[in-house]
Specification:
The chain is α/β, with parallel strands linked by helices. The protein has seven helices and ten strands.
Length: about 240
């Protein structure tokens, strides 16, 4: 019997004003996997992510995380969310930022330093966050999330605008976390990151046009790469209208 999904979304509907943002989307995400949420800007990726972490007002449907309603109190300390803009205090050092988040969840300074080392920021631990590069700020935000050792880690476009070497290092971290049992949901609009995922959710105009493994998507569309697969699905969808 397969394990219960770490994240289960059923018939999720979100409107902004009178405009639908998510149109009755459903999916299940298995534990210990990396799921990529891909789609162009404005497709609803951030709205979907906010619904998963429980910060989005929804019109209909259900979102369940680790067996609890999204955002429920028992999920605090079990689910971490890394926003698109680094959620750190610019006037504090890297070490102080991570130690602050550690203290909120009953972790100590040793655990904070361990999280800093995990993201390759050990040599920058005493630097002010405001003086960091974009990639360093992203890694500091990730350390603030990792210090609680989350069972579910949700990341909203964590690699946007980053140097390819830093992107590679971050994806190595994501794969290592999944290998350790964590469940990751990672949004992106960069198609070359798709092959790093166990499963892909392709979102367009508030609807999933695919929910499958990278290999299965290439096979079902008869394409050599995932960008071509995505384009094939879009053209197929538009042709059906």
């Amino acid at each position: 019997m397969p394990p219960a999904p770490a994240i289960a979304v059923a018939d999720l509907v979100v409107d902004r004003g009178k405009k639908p943002v998510l149109k009755s989307v459903s999916t299940e995400i298995a534990p210990g996997t990396v799921t990529g949420l891909l789609g162009p800007s404005g497709s609803g990726k951030t709205t979907f992510i906010r619904a998963v972490v429980g910060t989005q007002k929804v019109k209909g449907g259900t979102v369940t995380v680790l067996g609890e309603p999204a955002g429920a109190k028992p999920l605090r300390g079990r689910v971490a969310y890394v926003t698109q803009d680094a959620s750190i205090y610019r006037d504090l050092s890297v070490k102080a930022n991570v130690a602050y988040f550690a203290a909120l969840y009953g972790r100590d300074r040793h655990e904070a330093m361990r999280a800093i080392e995990r993201v390759g920021m050990g040599d920058h631990a005493d630097k002010l966050a405001g003086n960091l590069s974009g990639g360093q700020k992203t890694r500091t935000s990730l350390a603030c999330a990792l210090v609680i050792e989350p069972e579910v880690l949700v990341l909203d476009e964590p690699t946007v605008g980053l140097d390819p070497v830093i992107r590679e290092e971050l994806w190595d971290q994501f794969r290592a976390l999944a290998a350790g049992g964590a469940t990751l949901l990672v949004s992106s609009h960069v198609m070359d990151e798709a092959d790093r995922c166990d499963r892909l959710l392709l979102l367009r105009e508030g609807q999933f046009i695919a929910d499958d493994t990278p290999a299965a998507l290439r096979e079902s569309t008869g394409t050599a790469n995932l960008e071509a697969a995505f384009l094939h699905l879009i053209r197929e969808l538009e042709g059906a209208r």
